[in-house]
Design goal:
Blueprint: H1 18-21, H2 25-32, H3 41-49, H4 56-65, H5 79-90, H6 98-111, H7 119-132, H8 135-154, E1 165-166, H9 170-179, E2 188-189, E3 194-203, E4 206-212
Parallel strand pairs: 1-4
Antiparallel strand pairs: 2-3, 3-4
């Protein structure tokens, strides 16, 4: 049986003030550009890349604040991700070679320059560092993985078109569903800003999740046609089963 990365997320946790749960773009922009703020973006990103432990608020401003950064280009191809997929396709998950793991880490690092909060990449890096024996970085990436998934979860219930979860990359919504070990079908656009992704079968009477993808098209070229790649299920990696680093999230 394929092993899971972690157990399914059980409950939504409060995120403090109401306007902070659903991303407030004006507030985000003001805080991440204020060098006196604890959410000043360069400082937050430095701590994230260093593997520091972050709060729910910090993940919120990091994740949604990325949409205001010049390197946020969600409609461009990601060569690093192509390399990751090629390596994963040939990798012997249970008995990978040192060379393959080193190459995988390098490819993930390259891919994260364009998609630094990809749950898929964070998941793979946790696996790769754990396999290589680097337990410190394994824990850091797994902690970031939980933080980003929890950030997406807190942004909306996802149960209604008017209460979508907010994502900055299409694949992040699919990764969120995959993290629960649920299968999904092809998503469909239901409005100019919202996509509905149905489950293969209902879970607790829920037939699917709504995701707000509006940030992805903020700077969309007029003649651009976007073809999305689908994500793979998290448990296809088959690493050892992880335990949550924050039991209150589950």
């Amino acid at each position: 049986m394929l092993k899971k990365i972690f157990t399914a997320i059980a409950a939504l946790l409060a995120f403090g003030v109401a306007q902070a749960q659903t991303p407030d773009n004006d507030l985000l922009f003001a805080e991440i550009n204020n060098n006196a703020s604890q959410y000043y973006y360069p400082n937050l990103m430095m701590r994230y890349e260093a593997g520091d432990t972050l709060t729910d608020h910090e993940y919120h401003f990091l994740y949604y604040g990325f949409a205001f950064q010049p390197q946020y280009k969600p409609l461009e191809t990601n060569p690093g991700m192509d390399r990751v997929q090629a390596i994963m396709a040939r990798l012997a998950i249970d008995t990978p070679s040192v060379a393959d793991i080193d190459e995988l880490i390098a490819a993930c690092t390259e891919a994260m320059e364009r998609d630094p909060f990809s749950p898929k990449l964070l998941n793979i890096l946790a696996y790769a560092y754990g396999t290589s024996g680097d337990k410190v970085r394994e824990k850091q990436y797994f902690n970031h993985l939980n933080g980003i998934l929890h950030c997406i979860e807190r942004s909306g219930s996802g149960l209604k078109e008017k209460e979508p979860m907010h994502i900055i990359m299409f694949s992040h919504g699919l990764d969120y569903i995959a993290a629960k070990d649920w299968n999904y079908l092809k998503g469909r656009i239901v409005s100019r800003t919202v996509e509905f992704v149905p489950f293969e079968r209902p879970h607790n009477k829920v037939k699917g999740y709504y995701f707000d993808y509006s940030r992805i098209y903020w700077n969309k070229p007029d003649n651009y046609t976007f073809k999305r790649e689908r994500t793979w299920q998290f448990n296809n990696l088959k690493p050892r089963e992880y335990k949550s680093l924050r039991k209150s999230d589950y």
